[in-house]
């Protein structure tokens, strides 16, 4: 799971987190997290975001509140999380037990030319989550910590927040369906059954 | 209502805040998200007192657009309550509604609209309808108390029947403009 840089490989980490996922619903922030969750296995319970930068954590909250018996995982990047950073306060106040947020932190804006993000200069997202009131957090830099990260996502003792420092190199683009209505409605059907398409 | 609050709340005798609450119940709205506005203060209290409605207070209104997307994924109908100044915070995030065809009804109390005292409210208040419509939102105004309930009803129906962002703008003519003692 280590890249040549000595940091965790993003795609192998994603593969490990989503192994034997059960009925886990996954929201991926725009950019590489979407390609990662798709590469390790496109799934009706995946919502890869083609836009709405800064939305991922709050989409996770809305889903977690609507489906309190289902685990919800948000996988996103450091730039996307920084754009919606106020969501940490909003989520910490609501305390959804079934919501986990994992930030794949490569310290760069990967889709736009690898410009540095604030985390490159020491901005500590775990400290910000703790400050907001998250009781359960992890800061992951070693592959041997990933099984505990996966266990925390499935533990249902959230809200849970983790940062994984990952290697900054890019992987092959593996694109999910590009029509968002398909992505949304296949997840709604997976959660609500065919009645989802008749909801008024 | 705090008498020192800067914004105007509806008159205690006004029926429309309770009528909006009744509409939220009729349409089985399960999540209400908001950045507070004095114009919505009584409605917010009614929602907070209702165990069947989950109320989420946001740090910025665009979080509410994302929250409505998540709620709909899980089968919950949601609405966003905000002041017109908050509409400006939502603009790019409204693309989520078009990407996914997600219903997103918004109930907006206007500032910077009719008899406004505060110059800082004018730019966004004057632009509210234009920017919402630029992002493909169906916008209907309610400028009399009697217009509010039917307009909100239509806004909620059109969102969930036709899968898009919709908004009711509740005019400042209804709520009244705070004068900061300069009556």
Question: Which keywords apply here?
Answer:
heterodimer; A: 200 residues; alpha/beta; Rossmann fold; six-stranded parallel β-sheet; two-stranded antiparallel ribbon; 8 helices; 8 strands; B: 183 residues
Structure report:
Chain B: This is Phosphonopyruvate decarboxylase. Chain B: One of its GO terms (molecular function) is carboxy-lyase activity. Chain B: Keywords: Decarboxylase, Lyase. The complex is a heterodimer of chains A (200) and B (183). In chain A, 48% of the residues are buried. Chain A is 36% helix and 18% strand. In chain A, helix 1 packs across helix 2 (32-39) and helix 1 (10-18) crosses helix 7. Chain A has a single domain (10-198), classed as Thiamin diphosphate (ThDP)-binding fold, Pyr/PP domains (Rossmann fold). A six-stranded parallel beta sheet of chain A has the order 2-1-3-4-8-7, with helices on both faces. Chain A has eight helices and eight strands. With 200 residues, chain A is α/β, with parallel strands linked by helices. Chain A has helices spanning 10-18, 32-39, 56-66, 78-83, 87-94, 125-132, 146-155, 180-192; strands at residues 25-28, 46-48, 72-77, 99-105, 108-109, 115-116, 136-140, 160-165. By secondary structure, chain B is an alpha/beta fold. Chain B has one domain: Rossmann fold (3-Layer(aba) Sandwich). Helices cover 42% and strands 19% of the residues of chain B. Chain B contains eight helices and six strands; from the N terminus they run αβαβαβααβαβαβα. Chain B has a six-stranded parallel beta sheet with strand order 2-1-3-4-6-5, sandwiched between helices. In chain B, helix 7 (145-162) links the parallel strand 5 (138-142) and strand 6. In chain B, helix 1 crosses helix 2 and helix 1 runs parallel beside helix 7 (145-162). The two termini of chain B are 20 Å apart. The interface between A and B is large, with 41 and 34 residues.
């Amino acid at each position: 799971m280590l890249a040549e840089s000595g940091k965790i490989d993003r795609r192998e980490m994603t593969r490990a987190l989503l192994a034997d996922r059960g009925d886990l619903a996954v929201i991926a922030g725009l950019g590489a997290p979407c390609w990662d969750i798709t590469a390790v296995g496109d799934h009706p319970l995946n919502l890869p975001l083609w836009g709405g930068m800064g939305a991922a954590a709050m989409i996770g909250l809305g889903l977690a509140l609507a489906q309190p018996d289902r685990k919800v995982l948000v996988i996103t990047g450091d730039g996307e999380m920084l754009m919606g950073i106020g969501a940490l306060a909003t989520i910490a106040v609501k305390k959804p037990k079934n919501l986990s947020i994992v930030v794949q932190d490569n310290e760069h804006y990967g889709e736009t030319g690898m410009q540095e993000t604030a985390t490159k200069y020491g901005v500590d997202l775990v400290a910000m989550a703790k400050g907001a009131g998250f009781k359960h957090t992890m800061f992951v830099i070693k592959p041997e910590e990933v099984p505990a990260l996966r266990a925390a996502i499935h533990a249902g003792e959230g809200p849970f927040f983790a940062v994984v420092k990952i290697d900054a190199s890019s992987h092959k683009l593996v694109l999910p369906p590009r029509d968002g209505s398909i992505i949304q409605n296949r997840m709604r059907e997976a959660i609500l059954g065919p009645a989802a398409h008749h909801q008024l | 209502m705090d008498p020192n609050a800067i914004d105007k709340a509806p008159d205690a005798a006004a029926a429309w805040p309770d009528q909006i609450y009744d509409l939220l119940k009729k349409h089985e709205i399960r999540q209400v998200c908001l950045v507070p506005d004095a114009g919505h203060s009584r409605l917010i209290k009614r929602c907070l007192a209702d165990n069947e409605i989950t109320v989420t207070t946001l740090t910025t209104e665009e979080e509410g657009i994302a929250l409505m997307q998540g709620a709909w994924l899980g089968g919950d109908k949601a609405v966003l309550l905000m002041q017109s100044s908050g509409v400006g915070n939502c603009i790019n995030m409204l693309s989520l509604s078009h990407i996914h065809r997600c219903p997103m009804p918004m109930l907006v109390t206007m500032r910077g609209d009719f008899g406004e005292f505060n110059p800082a409210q004018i730019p966004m208040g004057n632009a509210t309808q234009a920017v919402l419509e630029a992002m493909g939102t169906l916008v209907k105004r309610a400028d009399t108390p009697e217009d509010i309930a039917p307009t909100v009803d239509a806004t909620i129906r059109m969102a969930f029947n036709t899968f898009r962002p919709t908004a009711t703008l509740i005019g400042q003519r209804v709520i009244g403009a705070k004068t900061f003692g300069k009556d």
